[in-house]
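notes to self, project folder thing:

trying the whole complex as one job this time. last attempt i did each chain seperately and stitching them together was a nightmare. two parts in total, labels are on each line so i dont mix them up again. if this works i'll redo the older ones the same way
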Amino acid sequence: MAAGYLAAGKAAEKATFEFTLRRLPANRNFVIMAGLPEAVDYLLNLSFTAEEIEYLRGLDQFRNAPPNFFEYLRTFRFTGDLFSVPEGTPLFAGEPVLTIRGPLIEAQIPETFVLSAITFQTLIATKAARSVHASQGRPVIEFGTRRAHTPQAGVLGARAAYLGGCEGTSNTEAGFRYGIPVMGTAAHSWVMSFASETEAFRQLQRLLGEHTIQLIDTYDTVAGARQAAALGAPLWGLRIDSGDLLSLSREVRAVLDAAGLHDAKIMASGDLDEYKIRDLLRDGAPLDAFGVGTQLATSADAPAMGATYKMVELDLGGIHRFTAKFSDEKTTLPGSKQIFRDKARDVIARSGECGNGEALLRPVILGGCLIEPLPTLEQARCRAAQSLARLPAPLRELEEAEQPWPVIYSRELRTLVEQTRLNLER
Amino acid sequence: MAAGYLAAGKAAEKATFEFTLRRLPANRNFVIMAGLPEAVDYLLNLSFTAEEIEYLRGLDQFRNAPPNFFEYLRTFRFTGDLFSVPEGTPLFAGEPVLTIRGPLIEAQIPETFVLSAITFQTLIATKAARSVHASQGRPVIEFGTRRAHTPQAGVLGARAAYLGGCEGTSNTEAGFRYGIPVMGTAAHSWVMSFASETEAFRQLQRLLGEHTIQLIDTYDTVAGARQAAALGAPLWGLRIDSGDLLSLSREVRAVLDAAGLHDAKIMASGDLDEYKIRDLLRDGAPLDAFGVGTQLATSADAPAMGATYKMVELDLGGIHRFTAKFSDEKTTLPGSKQIFRDKARDVIARSGECGNGEALLRPVILGGCLIEPLPTLEQARCRAAQSLARLPAPLRELEEAEQPWPVIYSRELRTLVEQTRLNLER
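result (full assembly):
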């Protein structure tokens, strides 16, 4: 497409592309925007090496590419603008998430990378927020790197999970890179490497003191609890990773209480998700913390998100065109937009319109330069928590709410949609 | 755990860990092993930078770590052995996938990275093999990077999809890195950037000649087909990306045939997976190629795989212990193993046993060194195709077969399991 735009004399045209949340993933009443730093980093550093250009030159598809295309790539960088909703913002179906504006080719190329970077972290932050809601104030720790779709997804997923409300992660690389609290327990192999379970527990306690969490289900969960309890304090608590978590947690609680270890806590893990956490607590399981792995790291019940990256405006130098796609179910709306959020609803308006409430789409990159440092991860995490607390209670629940958050179009936007449709039909 | 092993005087003990496929993902009769190069690369280059060590030293969990632990990390590298099933091998429930053997700490640390690297690519290669089976010889192109869980997952997913049988990918970075054929079409924005659809089609045809694939659903699919057909050859064909693919493909075929373009092909895309491909072809849709995106890149119906990394042997210098976990549903089997595959079944045996058929677990790294270059991606792809062709036909189908591939344990392995269980109960 880039070579074709150049060949067709369209390199000087300026385009605006919009990343839009077409619909919410199943069961979700919102998503939490996350992943912006990766998109920004990509745009600020986008370029082509000599080896990459030679590779492209050798492809049959580029046989008829204009000769100046490869020279164009050699000095390519992104010189356009990025507007984005801040990380940590809840978003709803049909809303624009970010806008990229610049020379046509520069605004086209980022499509795939940006979609992948943002949709993944947004899915994970959202799943984390749901799990944290289900846990009713008890800490949820992200334990899922081993099931993430590549090790990089493990690191970035840990970041997104923290943004969405998790207390920490077992991914030490994410702790190193982003300052996220790292938490975890020894694995079954720790227990198996010692001659007895008691010896394994004693050695861990010596090392970790009051941070000690004994994993008690290597051989027999309740017997493991007794052995750990017999060692007494110091002890944070015990972790159960398999079996019937409801009945086992009650038995383990009884063992701890009988040993006078009333302050010792119980962490549950083992294929947990927001639904299982909710059910366990509803049934009265005496659990104090949750390690959530597979389901969180892959957003397993909704592993993908319907998002599009479509051209909404094109400036041909003098002639300005609003563009849209009206075919079938994949309709897109023309024109750069803004979201105004007040206490009761969102209004999607044309950019440049005045509106009430908070304007969500803000400039991040202008003329290829970052205009100010992005909010920190802690700030994004706070924004997520505060924004979620302000939503009507049914929207925070795990099931689809009867009343979705109201998202309406401004009169000006509706007029533009109709005009664009008429122009296309002409 | 590493600091604890050192503190407990266990640094010299030699451990064997096994990565085991606990169960097959839903609907799968096999998985295709993929992702080994990433695991190998990790093991060969594993080390800790000064900054990483300082980070760990500052964590509260390491407050009581033995003083020599951080010095140990400074010179840490993997000096052990890796045995693995080759990429492209179909595997079944309960089978060992790879074995890592070395000093306890060195064999423990790779757990999370290796699980994540292998399970992800294995899921994608498997999903690709199923899609390719459903397409009955028609090319399937991997189109899913935008939905992959991070851009890196897009690149590695494209690799795995090719290994599993896809013809190519739209991920150019994967083409550059791995030599995978790159294929794709212009996007809707290409069409939208021109004053008319006809002009957009004409410009693309000028650039791509007989490689031209016109995306015809920007405004109206059948009208788009007429415009593309009116331009005549050269043309590879048309792509439909939305709507009712069965009825639209018939209408579009009729348009092409009426224009005398009998050789022009039709590619379908738009939330396809193996089931939809099968149904479209069963209903007689005149489709010649499939672009599969979201469902493939996220293995959406089975986004995670139950795999474990457990200690199976421990050598304490003189004393040799076989280790296993017998608790509840997450039981593991002790001892290093081998898989012998003949025409009718797999036998899981103890390593060192003799057996009939192909021995699947082979040395890859010995003493920290790669013993020979890994098979190429093309070789792994061939192995996958040939191995699948040899499976009983029902196992290649999309639904769970009544008769799974027989996997049995050798007598020696069964004896070892019983002995280990008795020892633990003593």
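what i see at first glance: Chain B touches chain A through 94 residues (CB under 8 Å).
need to look closer tmrw
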